[in-house]
Input
Amino acid sequence: MKKTIIFFVLAVMMMVGKTFAQSTAVANLYHEGAVTHFYGATALSAAHNAAVNGDTITLSSGDFLAHDLTITKAITIIGAGMNADSNGMVTYLRNNITINISEAAGHDLKIEGIYNNSKLTVTKTTTNSTISKSRLLQVENNDKMIYVHCKIAQLIGGDGRKELYNCFLIDNGSETANFYAVHCIIYSTFPGFLINSTFQDCIFYRHDDAQYVYDDMSFLPLTTTANNCCSINNIYIFDNIQGNNRDNEIGLTFVSFFKNFSGSYDDNLTFELTNEAATTYLGADGTQVGIYGGTIPFDPTPSNPQITKFNVASKAVNGKVSVQVEVNGGE
Output
């Protein structure tokens, strides 16, 4: 959601100017109506140490060095976003992170709008803990976690239930299990590792040279269910689960299916379907398969509003200066 606001008050211009002048990483801790600010690369760690269950931490764009942070508190962490753009509104977490939260915390962990380029390990967490609108390099999931509108390079771990809604999974790794995925895009070199899982309204794909590879790893296993899913470059993926699937499509090509995606992943791609594919290949809910279908179509914009444009008129009119501020924030 974008809002363009015109201010004719010089004081507002000065306040926004101060916001833009702030170039260091900032973490804001909200606790019972009070706000505490932490600055610098270690700001997230400092804010987490000062927080208690139920608090909220908002993060500016920039680099945060987590220094192998272990998140032990059921808090909400909201970053500036995961997508690099002309405004550079990305919150980078540049160290390994472990989540280890007791069920007795009384709250759920919520993480949104971050780009983690190291390893995230989910050791223990609460029932409805969620990571959303985030780019994750490697996740070892050993307890239940919900992922919404995420791009995940590798998601491994057999014990923890992994719920994915409108996500892009670049590699499921090996010896993984317990996926529940709805309206996702999944690059799976070895579908045979996806045991004890359910896939609904998803798109599977492999690279061109894997089109006619026929081996045990080409099939989804017998313990897995797939409904209303599509497969690109793997015509055998559903062969092993004939009793556990319905309305699945095979033999599809990148050119006929995607507007701008040919199998090589890039963070800047949108993965939109062609108009024909979007109206032809529908999920059980009647919307297009993949990340733009369902009740929560993919949207990487974080809920924490960010100033993305700031223009000041070169001349005053009637003693007033026009200031244009564009704020970008999700619903």
User: Anything to note?
Assistant: The CA atoms of residues 189 and 206 lie 6 Å apart. The chain has four helices and 27 strands. Helices lie at 10-21, 43-50, 254-257, 275-280.
